[in-house]
Amino acid sequence: MRVLRVVGVIQGYVWSLAKPLAYFGVLWLVFAHLLRTANQTEHFTLFLLIGILLFTFFSDTVGVMLPSIVHGGSILRRLAFPPILVPLSASVGTCITFLVNISALVVFIGIGRVSPRPAWLLVLPLLAELYLFCLGVGLLLGALYVRFRDIGQLWELGVQLLFFASAIFYPIGILPGWAEKVAFVNPFVQIMQDVRHAVLGTSGPNDVTAASVYAGAGGRAIPIALALLIFLGALAFFRREGRYFAERV
Length: 249
Known about the structure:
Elements: H1 2-34, H2 44-65, H3 68-71, H4 73-78, H5 85-111, H6 123-147, H7 151-165, H8 177-183, H9 187-200, H10 210-213, H11 221-242, H12 245-248
Helix pairs in contact: 1-2, 1-5, 2-5, 2-6, 2-9, 6-9, 6-11
């Protein structure tokens, strides 16, 4: 039994890395080799891996929170506790998986011989912002899913479109100026770009941040404020709808 338990843990670790590394492998092959002349991004391997790991965390966290109330309906009907604990507990698993996936990034940072920088300390508050954004989107969609089950289908489509619109595998600076401003309204893009700059510094002529696009450090306030508003609005909506969850699931 102990051997089977150890094997199960190892398998869980491998599968938690499989999805982001599969994305990484395909995109790295295309953009680092087949389109090498069109790609001027330095440390492209790390640039790409950071984007994929962050997006995987975002999509997986929202994905498990979305159906959590419906799946936990029987518990809500039997026990009296705040319904918000259900999606929050679901998000804990993806946080643990994300910490495991970071180990792959650490390995690639070592291989790439990227020197430690004081800016690395900014990664922690940026990850906190990302988690707050995930909670906001997850709570909102989770509450809506109780009433409208088609939300699940819409999310699957939306997350695929968001993957291509979030500059994960291309430098955002190649977009027209107006498109850059639209892209940085998305808090995820601001977080991803700031994490890349904190870890790698400027990675090429087409690499930009919210601060440069909106002409000043105050530009970051736009996506940060939006992330906070989404979280607060989703929390209020979830609490209002939470009174009826036990009856509807």
